[in-house]
């Protein structure tokens, strides 16, 4: 159940977007201001971080993948044109997990659409009352009420720290800065992910078209990431539909997925 403003906001956003790591909106009930989403059986990231309802703990491998998936979704939202979408309430409760523990971001009730030309305009201010969970909310947003993509990045940073430390979010950024002994051990444990004798390629490193590791990952209008050369070839051959869903693409622009590219390069260097 939501209020009317949050209801209409979420219908507007999720009704027009498709991405593998954004929750799929299946239906609406205007009379009750209710939304019907796809069923995600593994609860929220919050449930797994704090073992609610006897949920199993996440492996390091799953944690690394979830970080990459959230990064991919934010890159998609923040790169949309002509209006960038800022979620504004990113927290573990709003990150749901499917049957394979792949994540999907939900709850766009307080998000904002920001025209690209205003993002770097010093005189522009898009203000709102902060309504999100303050434990994950950008302090600058709390102070000014001005929502920008950097607000989501701060919240994402707190989520990363929670995934790495297993600690509650309250004061976590300060605690990690003070307790410098945390960092080396966490980094070492994370780096051990590559030491198994057989290292299967993470599936999200593979181009859906070529089924090969991507060197120039690009996000298309369908929300999927492809090898740039392969997707450009697909579009230049006259296709205007998604190679994955066969639905018509809303535009033919490609957006570099820098976060995924860096993750792939790092993985290749350690192989």
Automatic annotation (TrEMBL):
Record protein name field: RING-type E3 ubiquitin transferase
Swiss-Prot/TrEMBL catalytic activity: S-ubiquitinyl-[E2 ubiquitin-conjugating enzyme]-L-cysteine + [acceptor protein]-L-lysine = [E2 ubiquitin-conjugating enzyme]-L-cysteine + N(6)-ubiquitinyl-[acceptor protein]-L-lysine
Record-level Gene Ontology MF annotations: ATP binding; protein kinase activity; ubiquitin protein ligase activity
Record GO biological process: protein ubiquitination
EC class of the enzyme, as a word: transferase
Segments crossing the lipid bilayer: none
Pfam families noted in UniProt: PK_Tyr_Ser-Thr, U-box
Origin superkingdom: Eukaryota
Pathway where it operates: Protein modification; protein ubiquitination
Assigned EC number: 2.3.2.27
PANTHER family on file: OS02G0152300 PROTEIN, OS10G0100500 PROTEIN
Keywords (A to Z) from UniProt: Kinase, Receptor, Transferase, Ubl conjugation pathway
Start and end residues of each U-box domain: 200-271
Function of the molecule: Functions as an E3 ubiquitin ligase.
InterPro entries in UniProt: Kinase-like_dom_sf (IPR011009), Prot_kinase_dom (IPR000719), Ser-Thr/Tyr_kinase_cat_dom (IPR001245), Ser/Thr_kinase_AS (IPR008271), U-box_ubiquitin_ligases (IPR051348), Ubox_domain (IPR003613), Znf_RING/FYVE/PHD (IPR013083)
Domain spans labelled Protein kinase: 1-268
UniProt source species: Quillaja saponaria
């Amino acid at each position: 159940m939501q209020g009317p403003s949050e209801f209409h906001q979420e219908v507007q956003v999720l009704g027009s977007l498709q991405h593998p790591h954004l929750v799929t909106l299946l239906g609406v009930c205007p009379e009750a201001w209710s939304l019907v989403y796809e069923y995600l059986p593994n609860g929220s990231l919050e449930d797994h971080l704090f073992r609610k309802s006897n949920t199993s703990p996440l492996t390091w491998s799953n944690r690394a993948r979830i970080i990459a998936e959230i990064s991919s979704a934010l890159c998609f939202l923040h790169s949309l044109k002509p209006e960038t979408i800022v979620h504004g309430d990113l927290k573990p409760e709003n990150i749901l997990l499917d049957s394979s523990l792949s994540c999907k971001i939900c709850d766009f009730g307080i998000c904002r659409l920001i025209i690209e030309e205003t993002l770097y305009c010093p005189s522009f201010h898009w203000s709102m009352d902060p309504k999100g969970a303050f434990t994950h909310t950008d302090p600058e947003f709390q102070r000014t009420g001005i929502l920008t993509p950097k607000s989501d990045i701060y919240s994402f940073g707190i989520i990363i720290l929670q995934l790495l430390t297993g600690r509650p979010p309250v004061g976590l950024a300060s605690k990690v800065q003070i307790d410098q002994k945390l960092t080396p051990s966490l980094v070492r444990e994370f780096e051990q992910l590559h030491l198994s004798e057989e290292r299967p390629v993470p599936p999200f490193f593979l181009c859906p078209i070529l089924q090969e590791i991507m060197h120039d990952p690009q996000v298309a209008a369908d929300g999927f990431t492809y090898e740039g050369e392969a997707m450009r070839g697909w579009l230049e051959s006259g296709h205007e539909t998604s190679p994955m869903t066969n639905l018509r693409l809303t535009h033919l622009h490609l957006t570099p997925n820098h976060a995924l590219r860096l993750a792939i390069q790092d993985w290749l260097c350690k192989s």
